[in-house]
Design a protein that fits this description.
The chain is α+β, with helices and mostly antiparallel strands. The chain has 3 helices and 4 strands; from the N terminus they run αβαβαββ. Helix content is about 40%, strand content about 20%. A 4-stranded mixed β-sheet has the order 1-2-4-3, with helices on both faces.
């Protein structure tokens, strides 16, 4: 389900005060990082991921996380990426319709 512009704007406002839940460091993206992302998305639906790497590498890591988790990219600023994935069993965030 692709997010609309209004939904992304709403999620950006919700994510503003969040702290990064998952941090990708010098060792890059591993299975343990991907499983942490899965757990965090199931628990919170909206998370921040901090990626300490170069610009091109950050984009590749973000794409790999999105492909593996099925999440939607809400925003990327510098080393921070904001991801959203609806928890179908226990939704926590009610998105605007438009």
């Amino acid at each position: 389900m692709p997010l609309t512009a209004a939904q992304k704007r709403f999620l950006r406002s919700r994510a503003h005060h969040l702290k990064p839940v998952v941090m990708v460091g010098q060792h890059g993206l591993g299975e343990n990082i991907l499983s942490e992302v899965e757990i965090a998305l199931d628990a919170h639906e909206l998370i921040k991921v901090k990626i300490a790497a170069g610009r091109d590498e950050r984009a590749a890591i973000t794409r790999a996380i999105l492909d593996s988790s099925g999440a939607e990219l809400v925003l990327t600023i510098g080393q921070m990426s904001v991801l959203f994935r609806r928890n179908e069993k226990k939704p926590k965030i009610l998105l605007p319709k438009q």
